[in-house]
Amino acid sequence: MFSAGAESLLHQAREIQDEELQRFCSRVSKLLQEDLGPATVDALQRLFLIVSATKYARRLEKTCVDLLQATLSLSTCSEQVQVLCAAILREMSPFSALTLSCDHMQNPHQLSLVASVLLAQGDRREEVRSVNQRIFAILESRQPEGPSLRPLLPVLSRVVGLAPGTLQEDQASLLSKRLVDWLRYARVQQGTSHSGGFFSTPRARQSGPITEVDGAVASDFFTVLSMGQHFTEDQWLNVQAFSMLQTWLLLSSPEGPGTADAEDRSELEGSTLSVLSAASAGRQLLPQERLRKVAFEYCQRLIEQSNRRALRKGDSDLQKACLVEAVRVLDTVCRQDPSFLYRSLSCLKALYGQLGTDAGSERALLPLAQFFLNHGAAAAVDSDAIYQHLFTRLPSERFYSTTLAFEVTRFCRDNLPLFDPHLLGLLKLSFPNLFKFLAWNSPPLTAELVALLPALVDAGTAVEMLHSLLDLPCLTAALDLQLRSSQMPSERPLWDTSLKIPGCLEAFRDLQFQPLFQHLLRTKASGSTERLVPLYQLLQPMASCARVVQCAQAVPTLLEAFFSAATQVADKALTNQLALLVLERSDVLYQVPQYKARVLRVLSSWFLALCKQKPSLVLELARELLELVGSMSNIQSRAEMFTCVVWAIGEYLSVTCDRRCTVELINKFFEALEALLFEVTQSRPSANLPRCPPQVVTVLMTTLTKLASRSQDLIPRVSLFLSKMRTLGQSPATSSVYSEEDVEAIRTRATELRNLLRMPSVAQFVLSPSAEESQCMAGPDMICSSHSFTGRGYP
Amino acid sequence: MVHAFLIHTLRAPNAEDTGFCRVLYSCIFGAEKSAEDVRPHGAERDRLLRKEQILAVARQVESMCQLQQLASGRPPSDLQAQTSDEPVSLHEAPRGVFGLAAGDPFQEPRTVVWLGVLSLGFALVLDAHDNLLLAESTLRLLARLILDHLRLLAPGSSLLLRADHVEGILSRFLPHGQLLFLNDQFIQALEKEFSASWPR
Predict the structure, then answer these.
(1) Tell me, what's the pLDDT at A107?
(2) Lower CB density within 10 Å: C or N end of chain A?
């Protein structure tokens, strides 16, 4: 649809030169002065495209601009021309040459158009205030048979949103009073069709009553869920008034939204509940109070109307949106006036019980939860059921709905300060369920979950959470299988139908693997961990499907967020556990393309961070580390992790880091690393000589040197070894494995280390981490920079 | 309230990378107060910033839509032009929501609701606490109206030189960015009004 023709049109509009543009402007000016017919419309449409097509400002001829502004105020031209003039001026905004003003305007429709231009100026010259003044001038002088006020309310709503403090007290009162009229007292008769224009006498036709969404005659006052063939002015205003109600309530309240301390508020609410609101029935209500009362009644009515079975799908959708809004407005009303709380609570508890199961009705759950969160404490309401629903049922049943996923995560994020310890605990335990939202909808949900994750991290569940994060792509695959297995054939498939995976589906249904799948799909933290290795194999056919890959791409970011938070709450024991987990899982991952490499990068750097935070880690995990460096296969399968581990050993295995470090231990590590280095560089050439990255060789050499500097009996051994490195690359086997540069660099490094070892005390000083130095060490990527004079770019 | 509405091009995922994501129409409803910028070209800089913010949103929507298409396995032909007269069923069209953090690209944190129809993307940039359900149905309504009134399903038609139609629709169904609770009959009444004042 975006054809080559359109592309070229856009190109022309952007490329038009200044001179040609000014000529065109003259033409437009001429047309605006003479004729406002189709030719003018055509020209204006082109001018709009020219102005809007580029992000750089276009300078239009002054006459043209003046005429555009003048035409806006002309009541004789067609709406099409006026709209185009306004649009062009708005597209140029902000610009300083604007002379348009709304002073003395009487017509709401015109004011609306002019305001769209004025409000785009960025309030440089107090345009918001002048528009506001004009609106109220019109409102106050309202003639009963004057032009329709319909265009006015949206502008007003915008003005209030842009600058809440603009309205004066009497203006605010006036608006509240009018809103009360429009919300509560719109007529319940249908309008007649005005074929003769607004001012003609209406035909003497029987106009029927307004009906409800299910066709029944309207049972009470008019609302947005009332139906009719033709609508009257006040009914239109009813719709607009409700549409802006929430905004107005929030912005017009003297305290502003959510300023009261939660505790104070619930105390106040609790004490107010026991006082009947009848106490205030005697005196005259202030406009703001009347508005709240009417808002309350309107919302109650909407909730009742939402229970009816709508005849049309569009209306059914609207009922759901109205339900959400009604609950939100009730929440605001109760926050501003706790005397409404008692009646609201009973109404909303009933609503919760009645929420249907069709798609869309669960969206009302969120404002309900918000309401109970804000007010439940005061009424001692046990809102546990609703939170259970929110954290336990909803994610497992509707993880595939992106908007729901987004709303739930946002709800959690926004309301964290309000969660009491019990609720916070429930939230933390529900992390496996919340992860389902991310596993299925990773692109939009990643940022949201990264923001929420720190609150979910808990010392008690950190280990389990790390496993879950690493297995997220697996979870995506499992959720896909769950959908395929459970969805009715008549419904539109939510999964990728082009992907045929009968084997995986069979495995999903196989009783043998039930426990593993159930663990993966659990809704709450179980306190235990399961090794899902068998599943990785079974789900291999799904590893490259797009949704799994997208999830896999999000995991590194989440890991970063996780570790940042976990390292802050981890005690010594947990640090050890996390480090061990990192080592263990670095080789045990679901094989999604490029997943392992990306995850290893993050895990490696965090392993080092853990060691830095707790230097005695290396010593306490000595057994596991020895195992890791004891095997050649570890170099190939997880080179980056291996490199980090070896570097960490070199850095932190010393008495200065932990007094329990013995010479025996240093020797043990030394022997293991020496053997490895020998195998990699000196062993008999064979076809199976593994490709060992040169970084591994250098880190091994450096670490051996460091260890030797601490257990000086080892120095001769190391020196000998290092001197043998001079022959590296001379055997045909190694020369095919390493490039010239690599070999050269390794040799140079070996020489430097040997030279260092000739001065043992200097070596010891230089190669041991002091508190200062370890700050500037950048880690194994800059292994050469362990001291200044061997600083080279080669790792 | 809605901060901005935009229509932009949507390329199919994995298409050969030809061209850019283009914003075909955008409307920002009332600008935030400009910073205290008294330098001579402050106004132009403001405008430039707004345009770039809109383009940033369009690009993100395109990327989200493409990722969603890939993940759900919908064939790319879904996004090609239809020649039949059947109305496009918008309930099945790819759609989604995502958040924009403060400063990236707008000053305030915002939320974007988007819809992809054929090779056009429609998006609403909302304030952080708007009624999402209403925004979604409003967006569907706007897309349907624009597609119908501009007959965008017919080959060769384009919306570039008919922005006034879009403006007319917006002024009735999303005036100044105000989301309206319109039931079916109100919508019908407004549509009649619009068709009457706007020659096709």
Answers:
(1) 87
(2) C
Inter-chain CB proximity B168 and A83 less than 8 Å = yes
CA–CA separation, A387 and A428 (whole Å): 12
The residue among A683, A674, A747 whose CA lies nearest residue A711 is A674
Q: What gap in Å lies between CA A416 and CA A606, rounded to an integer?
A: 27
A 478-497 near B (Cβ less than 8 A): 492, 494-497
pLDDT at res. A787: 36
Burial letters A91-113, b for 16+ CB under 10 A, else e: bbbbbeebebbbeebebbbbbbb
Q: Which CATH architecture has domain B2-197?
A: 2-Layer Sandwich (3.30)
Q: Give this prediction's pTM.
A: 0.90
Residue-level pLDDT at A196: 47
**Are B47 and A121 an interchain contact pair (Cβ–Cβ within 8 Å)?**
no
Q: Nearest CB to B30: which of A119, A403, A443?
A: A119
Average pLDDT for A475-479? 95
Which chain B positions have a beta carbon within 8 Å of A251's beta carbon? none
User: Cα separation of A761 and A309, whole Å?
Assistant: 88
Q: Name the residue ranges covered by the structural domains of chain A.
A: 168-190+212-252+287-376, 382-488+500-613, 617-773
ipTM: 0.94
CATH topology of domain A617-773: 1.25.40
Residue A345 has pLDDT above 60, yes or no: yes
**Residue from the list A10, A321, A447 with its beta carbon closest to the beta carbon of B181:** A321
Contact A535, A513 (CB under 8 A): yes
Probe site for chain A from B176, B187, B188 (most A CB atoms < 10 A): B176
Establish, for the pair of chains A and B, how many residue pairs have beta carbons separated by less than 8 Å. 245
Nearest to A407 by CA among B70, B132, B86: B132
* Residue A538 CB partners (closer than 8 Å, separation 6+): A503, A504, A507, A513
A456/A690: higher pLDDT: A456
In B, minimum Cα distance to A210 occurs at: B185
